[in-house]
Amino acid sequence: MGVRVPPSAPSIITLMSIRGLEREFSLTEIINGVEVVSPSPFIKHQIISSNLYNILSPYVRKHKLGKVFYSPLDVIFKEGEQRLQPDILFIRTNNLIIAQDWVRGVPDMVCEIVSKGTIGKDTITKKDIYESYHVPEYWIVLPEFETIEILTIEGNKYKLFSIAEGEGIVKSNVIEHLEVDIKDIFEE
Q1: How many beta carbons lie within 10 A of that of residue 101, not counting itself?
Q2: Nearest to 72, CA basis, from 119, 23, 121, 115
Q3: Per-residue pLDDT tens digits for 85-132
């Protein structure tokens, strides 16, 4: 038997039905002017994201290098055209002016954790966008292969700076002296 709501009771509405709040609470990106809605990530993705954040954030804080943020947080390169939500991002102290209501400008590092169904979006489409805006460093995390690639911008193109597959250390060019054992990222 269902719950009876008296006719005089106010209607129940969801946040998603309130125009204007919809974007603030969604996993919607705008890629090349097109709204792209993604499903919430799987547990494995969240474990990797959490591990990575728990390594990066204390390191950055200890060395007073800037701030580390995690998704969902919009990075707006061009309003209405390029509004992305990288899984993890880093902004140097001298660049923190871009951290406003959302991030409005170019972060110093972005990271995408590739999931089933996002490999093309993360390794081609988003890579091209980050490259075109000269994001200094792009981390691509491939859970299925326990691989991390770190790309850095040289001129107008990304070049491979560091890679570890299965085991080993990756090094950041942007987060000073940071070296990460990838086993710490992929451990469950």
Answers
A1: 8
A2: 23
A3: 999 999 999 999 999 999 999 999 999 999 888 898 899 999 999 999
Dist. CA 88–CA 121, nearest whole Å: 16
What residues are paired with 99 via a beta bridge?
103
Whole-prediction pTM: 0.85
Total residue count of the chain as it appears in this document? 188
Return d(Cα 147, Cα 78) in angstroms, integer: 31
Rounded to whole angstroms, the Cα distance separating 97 from 17 reads 32
Contacts for 51 with CB less than 8 Å, ≥ 6 apart: 184, 185, 186, 187
| CA–CA distances in Å: residue 101 to residues 98, 105, 106 | 9, 12, 14
For residue 130, give the nearest of 104, 114, 147, 152 by alpha carbon: 152
Exposed/middle/buried for residue 123 (C-beta within 10 Å: 0-12, 13-18, 19+): middle
Element (H, E) at 141: strand 137-142
